[in-house]
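Researcher: Going back to the complex we discussed earlier. I've cleaned up the inputs and rechecked each line, so this should be the final set. Can you rerun the prediction on the complete assembly and write out the structure?
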Amino acid sequence: METLMLYLVKVNVIFTILFLAYFFCLRTKKRFT
Amino acid sequence: MFKNEKAFYLNRAFLLSSLLLSLLLPLVPAIHLAAGGTFPNYVTGINPLKTVLGAGPTLQNVSQPGAGAIRHGFFAGIFAHITLIQVLMGIYLLVALVLLNKFIYQLLNLYFLFKRSKRYKGEAIVYCEHNQELLPFSFFNILFISPGSNYHQLEQIIEHEKVHIRQWHSLDILLAEVFSIVVWINPLTVFLKRYNRLNLEYIADQEVLNTGIDKKQYQLSILQNSINPNAYPLTNLFNSSKIKLRIKMINQSKTTGKQYKYFSVLPLVLISYLLVNPVIASPITIKLSAAYDTPLPAFAGVYQNRDARTAFYKVSVVNNALVANRLDFKQQYVLNRASELTFETADPETSKKIILTFSKNGTGAIGELRVDDHTPWIKVNAYKLTDQVRMPPGMLKKFEGEYQLEAKPGTFLTIRSNGTGLILKQKWDGKEIGPFAPTSVLDFLQMEDAMPLRFVKDHNGNIVKMYANGRDVWDKLITVKLQ
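Model: Rerun complete. Updated structure for the full complex:
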């Protein structure tokens, strides 16, 4: 059970880092020209 | 390909990779900078998770199958066995199960619509004609359309859906859905689903516009069809996602992002990995394995289990490596040095790591060995192996019965005979440990883990007590037959 919890915490940490990177750096932002 | 389009595809790849990396990176083992445990210092300072999570399940908790519970348990009854972590995980899994049910329900809904529809097989696309008043939508290679639709009017929409089908966008949507079920506790999964879908719409819009369709006409189609709600959330629907954002994106002439950004976020993958996996790095003063103060031959010798006096380890140096052999039982470990007095090895059956720690006596010589912090093995100069004791089944029966932990009344185990030895069953979790082979008239040993049981008789020759691991005292319960 502890192993599963540890795994889920790790998944959450990695996902949060990568998704925030996507959100703030990569997400295609709208801009009119 | 337009610059924007390239960015959409890169974004799609990034989102998909993020999901897969999030699920797989925690499974990748930690980096060992030096092979064979030459540089064994664990740098916990750069791993903030260590302080949050602790060291995770320790070896003491997970090693030595069959013996762990009785070694570390014996304190708890049935209810005391449920920890806070188990309760929290139970709640977590329950919510995940509810979300999974909802997901399966949505899939089934789609399946039933598919079964009810008239189906026509086109080129790589299955057209499903249904009776519901819905805009065309797609799921994998199935395009759902209603018969009343004016094909000419919906041409652009169908073209849009075909892009989803060709590029397997349903896979992205399903993956994001499944991922959000697994990590439902993370609020970012809501945004993940939204932005994943939005990006797929951008791709489809851009692909349709590339075919030469009038941009204004296409935007008008999106607006006209934006009022119909989506009855099937797992599908690709023309009017899904934010209409305003899509129209803005259609009118955007070039991307605001640069492609170097994609490379600049790559180190984040490494950082994420280092965050969740303990890093094993060399100490500041590098010390070669050959330069340890205690040479390998100093560890060699015979070690006797303090509690199970018939169990012996013979430690010897073979080909410049330390090897531990059980003399009373077929068991051999090749030890890798982890530090001055610590060695590591793995259980050949379960691959679990076992740590062997030697300690020195007052004279500075190696005098004791501990396997995973359990009962110490004392270095002895002379040893005598006990011949295998055979006990008749009738004699073994005398040990059978129910026992109660003296230090914690209400904690029970039962002992039964299997004809040649004894089997112990922990009543609080139903776990069986054994067999325990007789080593003397009142002593038994579980060979693999060197776990001893010693029984005590009263003056009538009846078994009244049992010592497990030479530490825990168990009283045998007397069965009284009522007349």
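Model: Worth noting: Chain B touches chain A through 60 residues (CB under 8 Å).
Researcher: Good, that matches what I expected from the previous run.
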